[in-house]
Amino acid sequence: MISNKQTTRICLWSGPRNISTALMYSFAQRSDCKVFDEPFYAHYLSKSDARHYHPGAEEVIATMENDGEKVVQDLILGSTDAPVLFFKQMTHHLIDLDWRFMAQTINIILTRDPLEMLPSYAKQVQQPTLHDVGYAMHLKLLDYLQELGQTPPILDSKQTLLNPRAVLRQLCEKIGIPFEEVMLRWPAGARPEDGSWQKYWYDVVHRSTGFQPYWRKEGEFPVGLRPLLTQCQPYYEKLAALAIQA
User: Fold this and answer.
1) CA distance linking residue 236 with residue 91, whole number of Å
2) Which residues span the domain enclosing 20?
3) Which CATH number characterizes residue 135's domain?
4) Cross-referenced InterPro entries, in alphabetical order (predicted)?
């Protein structure tokens, strides 16, 4: 068993409809890493009205730990035999939690242009709010981590997809682990770590065998999402300016 001080514990703080699952699959290919899929999801659903509109919410609540503080102590900071732990997280799940555990984790922020993200998310969650999509919480999290003395690496989905090798190599250097070429490819299909919600959200990543080339989707942006886009854009622009470049 590896002691807590010898284990690299990585939290990837993302918003929905990003490339967070692809990054989880990427890290799962490493020779030294165990991955975990949104361990705070049931905590979030049990403490918010999202349980009424997230697909599969009741199954998540019934099959996962609902107490976020137990998740922190037993899983995120718990004993492990793996040199590296990777936790795919959603920033908007950080409600009614003591954030101080982040002083013991390496934290990465992942963002995506809301012009591309919002139409994708609205296919599953109608009339999303600013809290649902996590942009404001990303800035709050960044401020908190900086108060802890951390400079969290920031990933932008577009930059990552433009050159996965270059961005992941820079990321690994920043977080103090060696880059492994195997992080760029994975077998098609589901992984055992996938959450129960995979049947609603993971169809694209299950068909993939690596990071897909970036392409901007064509089509008119939905009029009903324009007010939310206006809210999200300033937060995204602040993060994008700090992101690792391809």
Assistant:
1) 14
2) 4-240
3) 3.40.50.300
4) Class-IV_PLP-Dep_Aminotrnsfr, P-loop_NTPase
